[in-house]
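Our working data are protein records whose layout never changes between entries. The record below serves as our worked example for the rest of this section:
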Amino acid sequence: MKHVLAFAAALSIAACASVGPATYGPADSKGFGYEETRIESDRYRIVYGGSGDMPPEMVEDYARLRAAEVALENGYDWFRVVGRAISGEQRGGVGIGAGGGGGSYGRSSGVGVGVGGDLGTIGARDYFTVRLEVLMGSGAPPEDGDYFDAREVVASIAPVAE
């Protein structure tokens, strides 16, 4: 039993060591970071995949930051979020359980007693992904809607992302 617990602890430490904080930037091979897809000339889908150390609010801020950057890179002044989805999943960790039993051996028989249980998962992390569909525009934003000024978003979120 000591070996099983030592192995489980080693796996847990290895799992934690392999998942470091993601910095703001394009998606890496693990899917941490941003991606954008142009849907129409003024409409984009922005996806930001956060690492296991990022709360959902930070992942959403980073998706919004990328939307602002895309707007400015394409000559737009503002953007409106017309579609939004956030998803999360738990990854990693080590499951630990305990069990026992009995049986019969040849001519001798024994009474079987079993104990089972689940001690839970150790070291699992929550990973969040935010998907935004944004509509971009130039000049003064329309009066009827919830719009973001791209320059203001970059000025307020970019320093935090660095």
